[in-house]
Amino acid sequence: MLYTVKEVAEKTGLTPYTIRYYLKEGLFPSIERDSNGTRLFRDVDIETFYMIECMKKCGMRISEIRQYMGWLAEGDKNIDKCLSMFQEKQRVLSEEMTKLKECIDAVDYKVWYYQTAKEAGTLSIHEKAAPENIPDNMRKIRSRMKDVQRMTT
Fold first, then answer.
1. Measured between alpha carbons, how far is residue 74 from residues 88, 89, 123 in Å?
2. Is the same domain home to 104 and 70?
3. Same structural domain for residues 62 and 105?
4. Which of 3, 55, 68, 122 could bond to 60 as cystine, CB 3.0-4.6 Å?
């Protein structure tokens, strides 16, 4: 099936402006046109838009995506380059996920901390709390936070 820019926008949630920007940036070097000059996209192009959006969300620049699209256009000789690119991105994202998990844990702890303080009507509830009265997952996060504090003092 073939789709116009407007139809691609409806299918992907991208704006026609974004689609045209990607075209201008050379991310779709071989899009065909009909006799009126209207660009026509295929189902595989819809999948490519999804992949481009994912690549952007994981921090890849348009120039990197353009390079990747060029490798794809050249075929099988670039399998190793494509694999290497995505393995590196996978490594970087895994490191970022680890850091984000630590941030989520810290925020979860603070939410718990302030919720229990609010219920008690005082922040001093935590000073008086016996360790066994602190949920296990919060105790672990609190311990990690205190370990970091000790390392920096």
1. 21, 21, 63
2. no
3. no
4. 55
Residue 15's domain comprises 5-74
Structure confidence by residue, pLDDT tens digits, 50-98:
999 999 999 999 999 999 999 999 999 999 999 999 999 999 999 999 9
How many structural domains is the chain composed of? Answer: 2
- CATH code of the domain in which 13 resides: 1.10.1660.10
Q: Are residues 9 and 40 in the same domain?
A: yes
**Whole-Å CA distances, 12 to 7, 71, 147:** 9, 24, 46
100-137: pLDDT as tens digits = 999 999 899 889 889 989 998 998 887 777 777 788 88
First to last CA, the chain: 64
Burial class (CB in 10 A: 0-12, 13-18, 19+), 60: middle
- Residue 99: the pLDDT is 94
C-alpha closest to that of 36 among 4, 73, 1: 4
As a whole number of angstroms, the distance between CA 30 and CA 74 comes to: 12
| Nearest-angstrom CA–CA distance, 44 and 12 | 12
